[in-house]
Amino acid sequence: MQLTLINFFKKTVPGHIFRGKRRLVKPVSKKAMDTLTREYERQEQVMLLLRNPYLTLEQSSGHAKELQKRDKLVAKWTAEQTLRKMKPHVTIEERLNQLKIKEAWD
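User: That's the sequence. What structure does it adopt?
Assistant: Structure tokens below.
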């Protein structure tokens, strides 16, 4: 009985509590503000690193030649390897070849 009376007179938001005209809006806390400030500072540091590259254009122009990455990539996509991974071509004649038993009526 006591719990029923408490729930009966309790003032709540009608419907979904976080949507609509009469929604429940959480107050902004100090912890949330600090978290958001740290996130913005971290994003700014990342953007600073992206704006100022580690290598200049002259330094980065030929650094991957010795690694031969392009040659390895081209070797990976040769026609032989691609065809080995693919299934062989099948024609309709090969599919229907099982229906040919004898052709005595020809």
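The mean pLDDT is 84.
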